[in-house]
Amino acid sequence: MEDTREHKKTDGLLEGEARRRFMRAVLADLRALEQMLEAGAFERGVVRIGAEQELFLVDRAYHPAPGALKILERIDDPHFTTELGLFNLEANADPQPLVGKGLSKMEEQLALLFDKVRRTAAELDMHAVLAGILPTIGKSDLGMHRSDLPTTTIWPSSSWRRCWRQGPTRPCCSAGGSGRRRASPSSNRPATSARPGTICGIRSPASPSAAAG
What we know:
- The protein is 30% helix and 12% strand.
- By secondary structure, it is an alpha+beta fold.
- Strand 7 and strand 8 (202-203) form a beta hairpin.
- The N and C termini lie far apart (44 Å).
- 27% of the residues are buried.
């Protein structure tokens, strides 16, 4: 099976031959998954769980601080990876068996990982906070200048309009960020997923629940 990672990198809108190469790469990944399923490549007889913890980086006033790449370079730990914004990080816990003390071990590791990034952020005059939506985030924080380009994939406006109309079953963003993120110790799955009203995880303006700046 061909190596498709390079084909998923783009510096902007996917058009023409670049879009065709990208789609061929996504289809190649799907064929690889089908082959793995047919060959029984996934373990059986054990149930494991994994978790990823997303967090924000903020300054002294608790506004978004675009320091993710600096922290990743300093922390040098494969459990951490980028998210869509330069003010986001993601911590990936190791898979644990869903028996015995599996959940307790995961909780302990996530606490250690958060403490590690918290101390590293403090060295750079930033804070790490656990939040789903940062209350202080504004529209000016959500532009392309806040993303770790050039490897983030952004789909044309016609694509996200189509995604929103057709709902959550349309795989608009499949594997869209796999050229962007570092390898996760927990999972080799694509980093993004299609959801109604999103562009590879970013809410589209057409979404009735899109956040206003």
